[in-house]
Amino acid sequence: MQQAVVTGTVWSTKRIEGMPPGALLKVRTAGGDDLVAFDVLGSGVGEEVLITQGSVAAAWFTGTPPPVDALIIGSVDPE
Known about the structure:
By secondary structure, this protein is mostly beta strands. 6% of the residues lie in helices and 43% in strands. Strands 1-2-3-5-4 form a 5-stranded mixed β-barrel. The longest helix has 5 residues, at 55-59. The mean pLDDT is 89.
């Protein structure tokens, strides 16, 4: 699990069949890496989030896992 900040939205008018509803968001990790993460929480630009990557991200979905490599799993509340 990593902490990241949402930096933007990725607009995609076409998706493969089987992709669940959700948004594709650009995030920057605390280490400075830029990723595209799948979001089912409704996160917004500037929000601090927690992400997970790899098979753990894809395994969260029921049925056949979609091709998701990074998943937003939580929102970090401001202090």
